[in-house]
Design brief:
Layout (H helix, E strand, L loop, with lengths): L1 H7 L10 E4 L9 H18 L7 E4 L9 H15 L4
Helix pairs in contact: 2-3
């Protein structure tokens, strides 16, 4: 929440054309169902907070950067969200 409050919230008076969500390599989730829910919640909350219900989200799906059990589940969760949440 500190990153959101410090870096994203100050942008809320502005209109956005879209969001590129780059999850990052260092924190692939070992709990795909939680990640799927968190990503959906992130999209819904940003759309609400910016008062743009159709705000496009581009989800960057990263390749297998390092060994880890979380990568396939994270990619699957990202794919699922992209297929089920409009404008992603």
């Amino acid at each position: 929440s500190a990153l959101f409050n410090g870096l994203v919230a100050p942008l809320q008076p502005m209109a956005l054309r879209g969001v590129i969500w780059y999850q990052g390599e260092g924190n692939a989730s070992n709990n795909p169902e939680h990640y799927r829910h968190a990503l959906r919640t992130l999209i819904e909350s940003w759309r609400r907070d910016f008062a743009q219900p159709e705000l496009p989200f581009l989800i960057v799906q990263l390749p297998n950067w390092a060994k880890g059990e979380g990568w396939p589940g994270t990619r699957e969760a990202q794919r699922s969200v992209a297929q089920t949440v409009p404008n992603t």
